[in-house]
Specification:
The complex is a heterodimer of chains A (217) and B (418).
Chain A lengths: L1 H14 L1 H4 L14 E3 L5 E3 L2 E11 L13 E11 L4 E16 L2 E17 L6 E12 L9 E2 L2 E11 L6 E21 L5 E21 L1
Antiparallel strand pairs in A: 1-2, 3-4, 3-11, 4-5, 5-6, 6-7, 7-9, 8-10, 9-10, 10-11
Chain B lengths: L1 H12 L6 E16 L1 H5 L4 E2 L7 E6 L3 E6 L3 E6 L7 E7 L6 E4 L2 E6 L2 E6 L7 E6 L8 E2 L2 E16 L4 H7 L35 E4 L2 E5 L4 E7 L2 E5 L9 E7 L2 E6 L2 E6 L7 E7 L7 E4 L2 E6 L13 E6 L7 E7 L6 E4 L2 E5 L5 E5 L7 E6 L6 E4 L6 E6 L2 E7 L6 E8 L1
Antiparallel strand pairs in B: 1-12, 2-6, 3-4, 4-5, 5-6, 7-8, 8-9, 9-10, 11-12, 13-14, 14-15, 15-16, 17-18, 18-19, 19-20, 21-22, 22-23, 23-24, 25-26, 26-27, 27-28, 29-30, 30-31, 31-32
The chains are: A mainly beta (217), B mainly beta (418).
Amino acid sequence: MLRAAQILLALIMLVYAQGIYAQNDPLDSTYDFGIIEYDDNYFHDIYGFHYGFAMALGLDDFSTDSTKHLGAVHLDSYLGWRFNKKFSLTTGLGFEFNESRISGFRFDTQFLTLHLGGRYNVFNTKYMPYIYGRLGYGFGPPQEESLVDHENGVNYQAGIGLTLPAQNSSKYSIALAWHHQQARGAESFIDPLGNEINTKYDILINRLIIKFGMEIR
Amino acid sequence: MKNLLLGVIAISFINCTNDYGKVEVTYQEATAIYGDIEAIRSQKLNETTREITNPGKIYLGNDVILIGEEQKGIHVIDNSDPINPTLVNFINIPGNREFFVKDNKIYAETYYDVVKIDFSDIHNAVLDSRAEYVFQDLWKNGEETLIGFTYKEVTAELDQNDDFYQQVLAENEIYLDYAKNTIPKSALPSSFAGSGSKVSGTANRVTYTNEHIYIIGNNSMYIVADDSNGLKKVERNPYIGEGVETIFPFEDNLYIGSRSAVNIYNISDPKQPVEAYEFDHATACDPVLPADGVAYVTLRTADFSSCPGNTNSLLVLDTRNIQDVKQKNEIEMSSPFGMTIKGNDLYVGEGDNGLKIFDISDKYNPQLRSSLNNIKAYDVIPHPTISNLILTTGPNGVSQYMINDNNESLTLQSSISY
């Protein structure tokens, strides 16, 4: 219930962002300079190279119910190219830690991910909503001398976000996204009863994440 | 249209954070064995010798070696000639895993009870006394009593919603032995040695001092008084914390090693141990060997073991003031298990990584005298009367070695393989 309320609140904020602010309409004359300018010198870049950083947390991180709490921390950096006021493509490198609880067991996974992605700005308003998707491949940690023993796997992410305008070339954004990671692996441990348990897992991790980012130029 | 697209995406977020897939789990499945406890108690004590198949505790006496057969009893070996040890008897103690020896008496746990057995005549042991229901009351199923478990390895594939494993953890109610294990998977190698005063190793869970037997379970201490009237359970089971592994008496204190600490209990009143000090250390498996004003502690870890971590070392503790124990030294090791002191030398078994001998003339500053990589030793037990004879336990059996004059090398005398 709490999660549904969180999601609805975020969506309301995103979908109706353009209606909240009176000065949403861009000044058409500024398109030629690779930016969309709004009042008070706020602008968005719409053409050319940019790079960015992002950090995401799983919404289940905030659960106060220990049986439902699942950690998810993602760090991301990327390079991109804006083709016009609507489309841009990115490529990036991320580190993703996800807890998974399945069949009564809890597994920790870590991946170093290479990814390609695209973004579509739904409205070119001052607070600019967008949808995005990315496809990547997560590399598991080295197997030797590691407690985490899992293989590499495909991951993908899709979400909806909002880019905040700025008076300089650094822009902040917030997004809500759905993250998937394929994970196969094995884990052995001694349980609280002193028993040796050996597990093999083949799972698809699904996480709802909230993502905070900064883009430059 | 755009708002509709966003709405569809939004709806797709809801109820999509469960993980999907399957887990294959391999574990030991326990099946209860029920029996007539009175019939078990009245079983014949001495039986014919047999092959050592599942060895447990080991005791080295003047002319005898005792080797536990897990859950079944104790092999008696005539060691009057250390070059030619010979099996001579088998003492039938059903359910036994832990025992302690003092003055030709064996103190052993057997299911719910503790027994005292006189083996002065190594060919004919005699039951001296029995304390019943030391560890718990009878666990009955109708007229029959739970007396153990059989185990088999099971591999099962669980779907994403199967909560079987959490239920096993939550319903941890059935237990039997002194350690309250339902599915015991020994944390120590089966050949781990050491049981007996003066000649013990450092991995005991049973000890005897001041006419009392002390037995450590996973988190409680059980006490049995031993006086002229025989064994009698002391109705007091002090809580001693989780992960307790070893107990060793010295003077008026019990040194209890757990995976994260060494606890010292004062037993001036033998029936009421009082915790005097706790020395915390890194989480590891840790036999403790106290001596005069000093205690040696081995910390052993390995990934995917019962002692996970990356600490393998020998700690030297100053115990002159047990209210203020101080760490004096830490020596890096490979995989230290049990140890013993012989004169001015400390012998430390390093399992598959051999045996190390330290000069402890300066007891707080051990100096490595030699590393014997060809002797795989989990524990080391000194002979009680032959000053230059030691017994080691390894993955394939026990061996007796003569200490050479230089105190740096050993000469094999005999081996008992299993």
